[in-house]
């Protein structure tokens, strides 16, 4: 039994000694590993600091420049928005002012027409009163004098319609009524008066007055169509590139430069530079507003019967249409044809001559009164 214990002890002795040596070497290894880990950490920190410094040195100025560019773009965008708002406000204010001017002119015309009608009504009332008084004074007068007095009143009223209101239709009707009353007398001595009435009727019927309301409506419809017309959008034509100057293609190179040289001498410019443009949204809006203003000026010229202003406004509108709008579009062609038809309209005020029939009837009545005396 003791022998067995001794052999076991002898076997375990080397194992115990090896374990003690390993336990003694572990602290030394641990300390070496700690030192290596610390050095690695310091190296990583130093490398990170170097990279951060290099990034700050190279990237920070670019970052600042990028921030300034972004700020500049934001300021430009804000200015564009403000300019667009100002343009819309000015357009709205201009339309309001034009509408106010039109309403003021229409109200002034209506007021003048009302005043003239009141004056005419008062004058007609006074004339009727004078005729009634004359009839009362001449109760024994024959029907011939009554018919002559009625014809004289109708002729004077027709003359007033022509001069005050330029109403040729009513004036012709009054002349016809007066001629019918004179025809009922069946007197050959009234032939000169009836001839004068016929001449006055032909003169008034020959006068052609423009349809102001129709022209105004047509111009208003054209103003509404302006916003739908397509604009002319063009770009600069591409120039042919010169061939590469080599010994193999010297013929092509010589022909290219020869052609360009003579083309520059004989035909220096195929088209005007302003024919090629690319409009922004604000510029397109300004062009449409300018065309609408010319059409509105033509409307005012029609109302005020100013043919020179009317013709100039339509000519300016036609020039702007051909210059800035797409002439190949059907809507633009129809718009141009309507402008041409409107330009042919005559809005000048017709020349009214004095009616000769009232003076002829007055002369006849004076002769008749002298014979009766």
Terminal-residue CA separation:
197 Å
Radius of gyration: 52 Å
Name the overall outline: elongated
Count the beta strands.
0
Kindly name the structural category.
mainly alpha
Q: In what range is the share of β-strand residues? A: under 5%
Contiguous runs where pLDDT drops below 50 for at least 5 residues: 265-276
Description:
The protein has helices at 2-137, 143-165, 168-185, 191-206, 212-225, 250-266, 281-304, 307-324, 330-343, 357-372. The protein is mostly helical and 373 residues long. The chain is elongated.
Give a concise summary:
The chain is mostly helical and 373 residues long.
Secondary-structure blueprint of this entry?
Blueprint: H1 2-137, H2 143-165, H3 168-185, H4 191-206, H5 212-225, H6 250-266, H7 281-304, H8 307-324, H9 330-343, H10 357-372
Helix pairs in contact: 1-2, 2-3, 2-10, 3-4, 4-10, 5-7, 7-8, 8-9
Q: Key terms for this structure?
A:
373 residues; mainly alpha; 10 helices
């Amino acid at each position: 039994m003791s022998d067995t214990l001794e052999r076991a002890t002898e076997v375990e002795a080397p194992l115990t000694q090896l374990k003690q040596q390993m336990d003694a070497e572990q602290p030394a290894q641990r300390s070496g590993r700690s030192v290596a880990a610390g050095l690695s950490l310091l190296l990583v920190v130093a490398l990170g600091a170097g990279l951060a410094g290099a990034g700050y040195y190279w990237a920070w100025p670019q970052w600042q420049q990028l921030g300034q560019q972004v700020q500049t773009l934001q300021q430009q965008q804000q200015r564009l928005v403000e300019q667009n708002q100002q343009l819309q406000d000015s357009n709205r204010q201009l339309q309001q002012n034009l509408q106010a001017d039109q309403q003021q002119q229409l109200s002034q015309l209506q007021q003048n027409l009302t005043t003239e009608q009141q004056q005419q009504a008062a004058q007609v009332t006074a004339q009727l009163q004078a005729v009634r008084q004359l009839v009362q004074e001449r109760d024994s007068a024959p029907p011939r004098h009554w018919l002559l007095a009625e014809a004289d009143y109708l002729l004077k009223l027709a003359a007033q319609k022509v001069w005050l209101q330029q109403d040729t239709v009513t004036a012709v009707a009054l002349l016809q009524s007066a001629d019918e009353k004179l025809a009922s007398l069946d007197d050959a001595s009234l032939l000169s008066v009836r001839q004068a009435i016929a001449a006055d009727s032909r003169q008034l019927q020959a006068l052609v007055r423009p349809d102001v309301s129709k022209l105004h409506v047509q111009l208003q419809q054209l103003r509404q169509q302006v916003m739908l017309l397509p604009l002319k959008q063009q770009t600069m034509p591409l120039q042919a590139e010169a061939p590469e100057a080599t010994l193999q293609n010297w013929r092509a190179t010589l022909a290219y430069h020869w052609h360009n040289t003579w083309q520059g001498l004989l035909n220096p410019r195929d088209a005007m530079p302003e024919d090629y443009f690319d409009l922004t949204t604000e510029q397109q809006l300004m062009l449409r507003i300018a065309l609408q203003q010319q059409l509105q000026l033509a409307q005012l010229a029609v109302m005020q019967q100013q043919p020179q202003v009317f013709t100039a406004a339509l000519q300016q509108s036609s020039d702007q249409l051909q210059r800035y709008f797409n002439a190949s579009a059907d809507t633009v062609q129809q718009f141009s044809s309507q402008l041409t038809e409107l330009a042919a309209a005559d809005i000048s005020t017709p020349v009214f001559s004095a009616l000769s029939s009232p003076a002829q009837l007055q002369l006849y009545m004076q002769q008749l009164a002298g014979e009766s005396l």
